[in-house]
Design brief:
two-stranded antiparallel ribbon, rod-shaped, 2 strands, mainly alpha, Four Helix Bundle (Hemerythrin (Met), subunit A), 4 helices
Length: 145
């Protein structure tokens, strides 16, 4: 510190430079950490969303095979249960709205899987929930930074 003639303390240019440099470094580092967290989150959500779209398509294929093709192999409800549970699990990595849509899909599957082969309304109820979940996934992907 320098002391001027009047006896008051003055701050040197070097001290001001050091303080501003530290503040600038702290702000820059904080922004970088925040941006990296957002980027990682978006990457995880994007990967889960693409996998969700694939699983939703495969579940829809199982429903169509069970109802329209009357194929007990391709339309096997156990495969459907695996897909529905995987969709519910993957949705947990995303946003709450998508988790809710996946849970509604699971409830619809739970209510309708036994009648898929014989009942058009059951097949349509499940397909409608698949479409709703797919729309939520698309909406989420559009919102990502």
């Amino acid at each position: 510190m320098k002391i001027d003639i009047s006896g008051k303390h003055t701050i040197s240019v070097f001290q001001l430079t050091a303080v501003f440099s530290m503040l600038f470094a702290l702000v820059g580092f904080s922004y970088n950490v925040w941006r990296m967290e957002i980027t990682e989150y978006n990457s995880n959500v994007r990967s889960a969303s693409f996998e969700l779209l694939l699983q939703l398509s495969e579940l829809e294929s199982i429903v169509y095979a069970a109802h329209y093709d009357q194929d007990p192999v391709l339309g096997n409800p156990r495969k459907g249960w695996v897909k529905v549970n995987l969709i519910a699990d993957l949705s947990m990595v995303t946003e709450p709205e998508l988790s809710i849509a996946a849970e509604e899909l699971k409830l619809s599957w739970q209510s309708n899987w036994q009648q898929l082969a014989d009942n058009e309304a059951s097949a349509q109820a499940v397909v409608t929930k698949i479409d709703d979940t797919r729309a939520q996934v698309r909406h989420l992907l559009k919102r990502l930074d």
